[in-house]
Amino acid sequence: MQRAVATATRIVLGESKNGALTAAIKGLRAKVEDFRACLVRDLQSRSSRNLNIPKDDHKKLIGKEGAPLRQIEADTNCRTTIPSRDTATAAIKIVASREDVEKAMACIKSVSERVEGYRVYRMPSYLLSIHP
Fold it and tell me: Is 57 within 8 Å of 112 (Cβ atoms)?
């Protein structure tokens, strides 16, 4: 949106029935070409990565009302997708520019490692009988 203001253009986004995103750019021809080139460059530089985090850590990452996850998304300019409890996969999908994906992965790993420090590990009952 900032780029549209800077180039004195308007952009109208639409979605077709098959899910394809369409962008209509309006303005002076030279400005439209500049904006289109920037838009294509930005879209091509998008990156997507999957990060495997144990499912037990997902609830700590999401936090109360999703605030920690929204904060990570705002700080790193990324979009994250956390699988539902019913799915077998534990992979969190991160979509952003390459640099922002790396930043988001580091933030998510740090949250997961903090959670790791507070895990309760249960000893098997046969060990409890020999431990004082």
Answer: yes
Listed residue (73, 47, 48) closest to 61, CA to CA: 73
Rounded to an integer, what distance in angstroms lies between the CA atom of residue 1 and that of residue 9? 10
Instruction: Provide the 3-class DSSP secondary structure of residue 17.
Output: coil
CA triple 116-69-84, angle to 5 deg = 80
The answer on 52 and 102 residing in a single domain is: yes
For the stretch 48-61, pLDDT in tens is 899 888 888 888 88
Per-residue model confidence as pLDDT tens digits over 5-37: 777 888 888 887 787 778 788 888 888 888 887
**Residues 13 and 66 occupy one common structural domain:** no
Q: What is residue 97's predicted lDDT score, i.e. its pLDDT?
A: 82
**10 Å Cβ neighbour count for 85?**
8
Residue 108 and residue 51 in one domain: yes
69 falls within a domain: yes
